Amino acid sequence: VQLQASGGGSVQAGGSLRLSCKDQRSILSSYNTYNMAWYRQAPGRQRELVARIGSGGTTNYADSVKGRFTISRDNGKRMVYLQMNSLKPEDTAVYYCNIFGTSRWGQGTLVTVSS
């Protein structure tokens, strides 16, 4: 698996989680050029883009998570993170990291938020 995601779990509404994703295959010079993204897929729903971070650090967020989630990256470690605060039950989903615009996906990590 090229993209190894971790950090999911079960929390109560209002809680926080931090997801991590490591690119285990790309060489550093390549990774530095990638736009990275987090997607999520809730049961019975299509996969949706949650947040994206460009190679230069520019970020974009879905309206549903703006102000609550923060995407960041550490190029030296080939890592991308998703800090999730003020979690809501509707954030429950499997979260996937992705090299944006490619078919390279992580295996997913489950986030469950209870009310």
Count the helices. How many? 1
Helix-strand category? mainly beta
Percentage of residues in DSSP E strands: over 45%
Strands side by side in the biggest sheet: 2-10-9-4-5-6
Question: Brief description of this entry?
Answer:
The protein has 115 residues and is mainly beta. The protein is 3% helix and 48% strand.
Q: Could you describe the 3D structure shown?
A:
This protein is mainly beta and 115 residues long. It has 1 helix and 10 strands. Strands 2-10-9-4-5-6 form a 6-stranded mixed β-sheet, with no helix packed on it. A 4-stranded antiparallel β-sheet has the order 1-3-8-7, with no helix packed on it. A hairpin with a 4-residue loop joins strand 7 and strand 8 (79-84).
Key terms:
10 strands, six-stranded mixed beta sheet, 3% helix, 1 helix, mainly beta, 115 residues
Question: What is the topology?
Answer:
Elements: E1 3-6, E2 9-12, E3 17-23, H1 28-31, E4 36-41, E5 48-53, E6 59-61, E7 69-74, E8 79-84, E9 93-99, E10 109-114
Parallel strand pairs: 2-10
Antiparallel strand pairs: 1-3, 3-8, 4-5, 4-9, 5-6, 7-8, 9-10
